[in-house]
Write a structure and sequence with these properties.
single chain; alpha/beta; five-stranded parallel β-sheet; 9 helices
Length: 221
């Protein structure tokens, strides 16, 4: 069960990844975590990545792909993995495909831009504990105050309206084209092509989870 997650920031990918991890016993692969781990271990690939990052440069797609190849050799990936955050662009997808890293499912959680805006700009957090609220969907008992401590809630810089809009624009420009890329691959009849599953991300997280499980079960038959 090798799953590639796609969807706008705030669409609920992280929450659904947790459900998928628990159900299938597979890890979520984060390119950020992989880079930090490789650099901490001072592995050959980690040292190469560090050279780029120390200069403030982006780590090349081919190097990140090599890190993915190393990561999926780990024993916890024996039954599969969930990939979120890579690939983000068409060149990265090509790099992944060229490396022979097969994906079983491309799972897109789709939500309209205005709904993403509502979700993200309404989020408020208690920094000390990480508790999260939403002014509309999950408001605190007292406006602007943490339920437990009464301390002030804050809006993360990433959740302000202009930043969210820019993240949405970046997704549509760089990552959304991956949907067509994978759909064309499926239509080509290539036996190595992943199956594409589209799920509407509105409603409760449990409802979305059940739709994802049902879709994966149906296509896995």
């Amino acid at each position: 069960m090798r799953i590639l997650l796609l969807g706008l920031p705030g669409a609920g990918k992280g929450t659904q990844a947790q459900f998928l991890m628990a159900k299938f016993g597979i890890p979520q692969i984060s390119t950020g975590d992989m880079l930090r781990s490789a650099m901490r271990d001072a592995s050959p690939l980690g040292n190469k990545a560090k050279n780029y990052m120390d200069k403030g440069a982006l780590v090349p797609d081919e190097l990140v792909t090599e890190l993915v190849k190393e990561r999926i050799k780990s024993s916890d990936c024996a039954s599969g993995f969930i990939m979120d955050g890579f690939p983000r662009t068409l060149p990265q997808a090509e790099s992944l495909r060229g490396a022979g890293i097969n994906i079983d499912y491309v799972l897109e959680i789709e939500l309209a831009d205005d709904e993403i805006l509502r979700r993200m700009i309404g989020r408020r957090v208690h920094l000390a504990s990480g508790r999260s609220y939403h002014v509309e969907f999950n408001p605190p008992k007292v406006d602007g105050k943490d339920d437990i401590t009464g301390e002030p809630l804050v809006q993360r810089p990433d959740d302000n309206k202009e930043t969210v809009k820019k993240r949405i624009e970046t997704y549509h420009a760089q990552t959304k084209p991956l949907v067509n890329y994978y759909l064309k691959w499926v239509d080509s009849g290539d036996p190595h092509a992943p199956q594409y599953v589209n799920i509407y991300g509105g409603g409760s997280m449990e409802h979305i989870r059940d739709k994802i499980f049902a879709a994966l079960s149906k296509t896995h038959e």
